[in-house]
Write a structure and sequence with these properties.
Blueprint lengths: L2 E3 L1 H9 L4 H6 L3 E3 L1 H8 L6 H4 L7 E3 L5 H8 L5 H13 L3 E3 L3 H9 L4 E2 L1 H10 L7 H11 L5 H10 L3
Parallel strand pairs: 1-4, 2-3, 4-5
Helix pairs in contact: 3-6, 5-6
């Protein structure tokens, strides 16, 4: 299974100490160089985020089709998102892990299967890797500054019977 990730799922889960969930669901995750750079350049106080790209189950792979990246940048995506989407297309990835709304929309329009951090939490609970989703969503909001609408928050809790 080929999984490509943008920065947000990795950095947010690292920030709250739950990055291990990704490796339990996806044995290998591929990131483009721009995502690796974003992780490595996190502020010094975010030491857990700065080391993500060094993990043995994270593989850094450069994007070869730069024209796709340039096209995506023109649509107001940041470099990490553009490279992650372009790499997912190049590799014919099974899934792209991405949270940002504009990036999700562009990836979906290009036919890429996407999952965000909340989908990862739902999968983790279904696999019995976590007992509850709510405390992790609360930590994402409080510690990582992750934004979840009230409606989506409620829908996720309903989906996992919490």
């Amino acid at each position: 299974m080929i999984i490509v990730s943008n920065t947000s799922p990795l950095s947010n889960l690292a920030a709250i100490g739950h990055l291990h969930l990704l490796s339990q669901i996806y044995p290998k995750i591929i990131i483009p160089q721009a995502v690796a750079n974003e992780l490595t350049n996190a502020p010094p106080e975010d030491a857990a985020i700065r080391t993500v790209s060094n993990l043995d189950w994270i593989e850094i792979q450069p994007v070869t089709h730069r024209s796709q990246v340039e096209t995506l940048l023109q649509k107001k995506l940041d470099l990490g998102e553009a490279e992650a989407i372009a790499l997912a297309l190049e590799l014919n990835a099974d899934r792209l892990l991405i949270d940002e709304q504009l990036g999700r929309r562009e990836a979906s329009n290009l036919g890429i299967e996407i999952t965000g951090i909340l989908g990862i939490l739902v999968a983790a609970k279904a696999r019995l890797l976590i007992p509850a989703v709510q405390p992790i969503m609360d930590a994402l909001i409080a510690q990582a500054g992750f934004r979840i609408s009230t409606e989506l928050y409620i829908r996720i809790l309903q989906a996992v019977d919490e």
